[in-house]
From TrEMBL, chains A, B:
It comes from Asaccharospora irregularis DSM 2635. Ca(2+) binds at G46, D48, D441. Substrate binds at A230, S231, N232, H362, V363, S364, G365, H366. GO terms for molecular function: 5'-3' RNA exonuclease activity; RNA binding; RNA endonuclease activity; zinc ion binding. It is found in: Cytoplasm. Keywords: Calcium, Cytoplasm, Endonuclease, Exonuclease, Hydrolase, Metal-binding, Nuclease, RNA-binding, rRNA processing, Zinc. The gene is rnj. Zn(2+) binds at H71, H73, D75, H76, H139, D161, H388. The keyword Oxidoreductase does not apply. It is an enzyme of class 3 (hydrolase). This is Ribonuclease J. Pfam families: Lactamase_B, RMMBL, RNase_J_b_CASP, RNase_J_C. The active site is at D193 (proton donor), H366 (proton acceptor). Its EC number is 3.1.-.-. HAMAP family: RNase_J_bact.
Amino acid sequence: MNKEKVRVIPLGGLGEIGKNITAIEYGDEIIVVDCGISFPDEEMYGVDLVIPDINYLIDKKENIKGLFLTHGHEDHIGATPYILQQLNMPVYGTKLTLGLVENKLREHNMLSDCVLVPVDAGEDVILDKIRVEFIRVTHSIADSCALAIHTPLGIILHTGDFKIDYTPIDGLVMDLNRIGELGEEGVLLLLADSTNVERSGHSISEKTIGETLLRIFSNAKGRVIVATFASNIHRMQQIVNASLKYNRKISFSGRSMENISKVAMDLGYLHIPEESILDIDDTSKYSDENITIITTGSQGEPMAGLSRIAYGSHRKITINSNDLFIISASPIPGNDKMISKVINQLFRKGVDVIYEDLEEVHVSGHAYQEELKLVHTLAKPKYFMPVHGEYRHLKHHSDLAIRLGMYQKDVFTLETGQVLEVSNEGVDTSKRVRTGGIYVDGIGVGDVGNIVLRDRRYLAKDGMVTIVIAIDRETYSIVAGPDIITRGFVYAREAEELINDIKEISREEVEACLNNNVVEWHILKTSVKKSVEQLLYDRTKRRPIIFPIIMDV
Amino acid sequence: MNKEKVRVIPLGGLGEIGKNITAIEYGDEIIVVDCGISFPDEEMYGVDLVIPDINYLIDKKENIKGLFLTHGHEDHIGATPYILQQLNMPVYGTKLTLGLVENKLREHNMLSDCVLVPVDAGEDVILDKIRVEFIRVTHSIADSCALAIHTPLGIILHTGDFKIDYTPIDGLVMDLNRIGELGEEGVLLLLADSTNVERSGHSISEKTIGETLLRIFSNAKGRVIVATFASNIHRMQQIVNASLKYNRKISFSGRSMENISKVAMDLGYLHIPEESILDIDDTSKYSDENITIITTGSQGEPMAGLSRIAYGSHRKITINSNDLFIISASPIPGNDKMISKVINQLFRKGVDVIYEDLEEVHVSGHAYQEELKLVHTLAKPKYFMPVHGEYRHLKHHSDLAIRLGMYQKDVFTLETGQVLEVSNEGVDTSKRVRTGGIYVDGIGVGDVGNIVLRDRRYLAKDGMVTIVIAIDRETYSIVAGPDIITRGFVYAREAEELINDIKEISREEVEACLNNNVVEWHILKTSVKKSVEQLLYDRTKRRPIIFPIIMDV
């Protein structure tokens, strides 16, 4: 009778989109699955990205055997440099995944300190009591894997991100047979991708995009400029194939596009005849109908390639009236307005733009309901825990498992920070660990917290008003000021009367204090702050942040 | 030979969503069609709403004959109080539209100063040389009309917002016959709604929602709580009908829901037996399965009903585990993340939630491609100008007209501020008028401009650092400070070293100036600002706003 326990600890990615990272423990052996970032939501002003809080792992440093990466998307590998800085460990993944990680580590000047261990789909990594098997899946990035984590208590099958594409671009189909075999052996716990659980039916094969692209390319008169996700190498390959068919050379634009296409070509995931690759500076040497440009900016990001081209601020690419633009991507929730702005701007410039609302130029990389049902049915898990998704997705994925015949008591809808502990006696979900998001802003990691963000929100909403007064405590008198500085509140030149009233009320408040021999800073400040706040709310119904500064000279 | 001209001047709503307002002029007679607001985009921090700039109209005050409203949606009537304050004129519209305007004018305490003239669909308003005919259309609010503006030069047909619903809830179908007659008479210019031009096929009838609702209600065990747009009275009626069928009483929650349902009932657009209306305070007197609550907040707005219920901050409604929530609305672009947050929170509370991704609980109120083709074909206009939409929509609507056989030279894709001038000699689109958005923030109208917004954006991104130094110009010395106040930049307690470095570098800069007998404010300020900016960028890669304050004591 095995008395050990398996603990699954989602440190990110459950009840949220992105920042996927899960610790899996057997006894005193710990592996970490994925290590992603998430993008700041609209309330996190100024934050560049969010990484997981891994204090839980740091406390158990000596037990950690390695980081196992399922695939090379940012929400699964993006935090690797930040996390390895705090906690170095060997990193296991397929060649392409590690190629992308290598790029990141190089940018952070830490490549030489890290150990990257390439693993092929179908191979095992044998640790002490745990064995980790990489199983090929299909997804919107090549070389994606599920992980079967073999423990003495049973097998934990973690799907990673996946869809079931029966006609993948590289011909490498998902290893459903192996999942079937594992199901026969007995899967203790299934952790499966929930992103598209609300979509009925079956996702569409990446290959259909190729057909659409061929049709679009066949009618293009000038350059074709395609914006897509830099990591979608299969999409890139299909754009390349359509270009070659119509005698176009291919040029890559945008830092991530150039980096990732290079890694993918070097490692043999993207195939382009050398003579068909064109430096962006050389495109003017060819006629327009022989050029395809693949660029970043498919989410409408203001600083990325597509936006810069649209607004005429790209250093190398100027719009021609016969250009055809294709946006081969879906808006990530929250980005639709940004993308729409860029589309509008392109149409204003008189060029044609093709996007998802008009043509099938994008498909999702995540399994729909029927695909999820297949994997559940093959794996026949004893327990199930949905991963990767907001709570609504996790909830619906649990419902799906129950509709497939699982008992409610064997299905666990948990969120980031909740521990799933499996033993021979059953499952315990009562424990929690400390988790959360660490904000990266500029080169600062973690120095912007909730208080700073709260202040940024207040400042954003109604701006600020600073009141400076110099007093002499000996004589109980104001010696300079009040001076008023305001930003983001009203346009001061047009609000002279209001500014004067702020001065007057501040002076009155301070004088009233001084006349009563009150010189304590906090009292002076508080009385100025309160009166000015009230004045401004009455007059404008706004609440700028008030900073009273009392100087003692 | 008529030498007069017809001028169509879009002051809002073309190349943008919302803020619909168009001036139509014949000779020295001007009418205004609609007068809407738009909602601030994500960059307009703190702005509550945006109204059109009507300076062009104010300059021609004496020629203006009236404001003609097509229907009662905010993007068509929302700015009425603000505009009438600047420029009083009679307001024409159908009963429901005017009922909603009345509410607004009452809130602004200006009802007694305004003239509201009810017009029924099918009726004409005869001005001097212009005659305005109201023509019934179907849309997501009752009592919507198109306008046929009869001028001596010809008929201008403005569709307003519309869809073609052959089975509307109130039985009042769109007057396609009249549009056909006008087409026979000869339409000089068609202005038509472009919102859904990118959608192929035909929109779905509002009536289908009723069937879905009946099925959902038939299975509900506890209260049914439906969030929808307050203005969608047909939707309200269908929710009421399903409730009555299953012996539920109806309670309205949320200010706009209570207001609009009252107006709609008073005017006979919404029919509920009196004994079936329940005050929200009385819901506890009935069992859950006999209660329906219709609430605001279908866009996930944090302060509206649905969010408050989900997060437990509603004063009157507490979640029961057997509640069924229905979100009978689509996310307006940009709102999807907010709605998703509320859905997640409701699921966390253990209740069921039905929304558009799962069931057909919402249909659009705007015409799809086949409906637009019908109206174009009936109206057979000489000229066409698409209205209501971003540039991409206008562009596609122009393309649609050309595919239907119009000449490119007779189709005009213009944006807000561009004038379409039609005479017997042809069309001129070369003129422009001043237009734009005026920001409403709190009770301020127009006192927040682009400079204030730019400052809010900077403050939001990286916060601010204020440096206060008091100097004595006589002795060329610092007498107090530097003191540092920072908000939204770093958490000051954890950045003591950085704060000290700011102090030191500021002191050095000021002392260097003073030692050279330089006391000019702007030089002192600029040198402090520059050095601190550089220091902070080098150390954090952030650019907070720096406010150096030099006090002279």
